[in-house]
Amino acid sequence: MRKTDFSFLPERKQLLYEQMARTYRTQERQKNTPFSRFDMRLLESKIAVVSIVGAYLANQKPFSGKGSEDDYHHRPLTIGFKREEVRFFPLDWEPSEANEDFNVVLPIERLVLLQKEGFIGKIHETVYSFAGYNSNQRNLQRSTDKIITEMKKAAVNGCLILPCSAQTAETACIIANQIEKKEIPTVVLTPFYEQVLILAPPRSAFINFPFGRTFGQANHVTLQTAILRDTLRLFERVKTPAEIINLSFVWTFGSIPNW
To answer: Which CATH architecture has domain 40-246?
Structure first.
């Protein structure tokens, strides 16, 4: 069985997440994963993004970090926002790389590049940004229902869901199942293999990169774009529910700071 390598993390964090991974490996995989077929070609499709990295804009209300009802409400980010406008509430990850270049967790500029080269058809104009809380399922469901209604109205063909850590990836799996039940295909990119194996979202890609660096190093345009391209391909590639595709990228940038 594949294992997540947490050696890039600070020592205490390694121990914490290795124990969490062992706990997942003792559990039974969830069954009855909802699955909606993606019958289009990417170059003809309209893709929406759900970000679960606590991103918000300077003129928006920040996530409080208290797990309040408002922390479950998504923040809408309109495509075309500027780098200096982006802020992060890092729920359980280290944000220094993302603060330098938001594309390491929220690769919107890279998505625009792929659209310009004709890899995908259209990008839904709103990015739906969540903090990553999931203990109150009712609040999370309410916010997810709102974005599903908007995506349906906008004729979205697929939804890319992008967490960057253990808790945010758990939330991503929950949201993916909720969206897929409404017949919108989803893809989740996760840095935690044992977790996604048990939680079994409809389509998922695993990349063994540190938390808070799902798309690599700041300003590494080629790497970020390659990861995003391979992740998007899962819409066309995955034909059976709960399939996990292991991306072949290797982290070579050393350990990351403590948080």
So the answer is: 3-Layer(aba) Sandwich (3.40)
